[in-house]
Design brief:
Blueprint: H1 4-7, H2 11-18, E1 26-33, E2 39-42, E3 50-51, E4 53-54, H3 60-68, E5 72-77, E6 85-90, H4 99-105, E7 119-121, E8 132-134, E9 140-145, E10 148-153, E11 158-161
Parallel strand pairs: 4-6
Antiparallel strand pairs: 1-2, 1-5, 2-3, 5-6, 7-8, 9-10, 10-11
Amino acid sequence: MSSPDDSSKSDNDVRTESQQPLLGARVGRLVGVSLEGLPLVQFEGGPGPVPARSFVALDMAQLRVAAGEQRQAVLLFEEGDPARPLLVAMAQDSHSPSLLDQLLEGSARPGSSETPAPATETGAKNSVPEERVVLGAQRELVLQVGEASITLRRDGTILLRGVRVESRASGLQLIRGGKIELN
C-alpha cells in the first residue's frame, strides 16, 4: 500500500530516483533535425536522439549540414534532465571560416541581428581583403589575447591592459588630452 508521501512526489522526484541528474556539460553529436526544426542530439548514456533547445545561431540550412556531418555538440541539461538537453556550442567544421575570417571577408549574413555585417572600405592590403573593417557593439567591444586586451566602451573610454604596453612611432608621436596624468 502506498503512503501519502508517495502520491505527492513530482515527476522530477521519480526521475532522480531512477536516474541521477546530468550536471555539467556533456559532449554529444548533432544527428538530425526534428519535424519542428529542433536539433536532434545524441549523447552517451542518453535515451537516443532527443530534440534540444538550441542556443547556437544557425539557420535551418546550416543546421541540416551540421546534422549531416554529425558534428560534435556541447550539451547542458535543464534541471539535470537528460530528456531536456540544451545545445550551447558546436564544433566548427574544419572547412568553415572562423568568425573573424567571416567578418574580414564581409560574409556575415546581411540583415541578421546576431552578427551585424561589418562596414568596410574597399582595397586589399597585406593579405587582408579590406583596408578598413569596422566592428560595432552596443555596450563594449573587447579584443583579447592572453594577458593583453583593448576595451572600447560606449562612453568613449578606451582601456589598454597588458603585462607590458609599448608604443612606437617612426615619426612624431603625439599625446593629447584635456588632462594628462602620469603615474
